[in-house]
Amino acid sequence: MTQFDVIVFDIGGVLVELGGIQSMTKWSRQTFDEPELWRRWLASSYVRGYELGECTAHDFAQGVIKEFELDVEEAEFLTAFDHFVKMPFPGAHELLATLRENNTVVSLSNTNEAHWHRVVHEMKIADAFEQNFPSHITKTIKPDPEAFQHVIDAMGYAPERMLFLDDNILNVQAAEALGIHAVQVHGIDGARKALNALGIAC
User: What is the homologous superfamily of the domain 6-17+86-197 according to CATH?
Assistant: First the structure.
């Protein structure tokens, strides 16, 4: 018997390549490194509102442009933002297919209607999971504890029987605070290494 009843994957940064750093750096009149940018991105009320499905793309774009002091027009920002989420890393579909042979595998992602449409219809990666928990549909968002509790309640497993893989340390720490076994990983190689270390064949 495996030590986990369910494996929970973040999508962006683990299974799907993320972009946007270059664009944000080019547009911004501020100077920040990548960890600081993502910390501020997670904390932004405009980002949270959009990824909770509580505001329009227009309000999101205008808010982010102002908050991050970006020198870019709304239309250019939104066009580029659509491709902040790129394509699945090579091997992503194969990894998930292998895991599902012997494990329950679900996704937990901070996302929005535009990006989720691409994940479902263009990347076809949502179909690789038994269930998906995208923030704009669940109305819960990482690293808030409610996001993880939603998955715990929906799946019906004890937190200690859940494995969570995410590329952001803030999300990993939030999951651990609820008793979930969480590991920070980057990309497919990072995910495989973490899974193998835990004795999970992939």
Answer: HAD superfamily/HAD-like (3.40.50.1000)
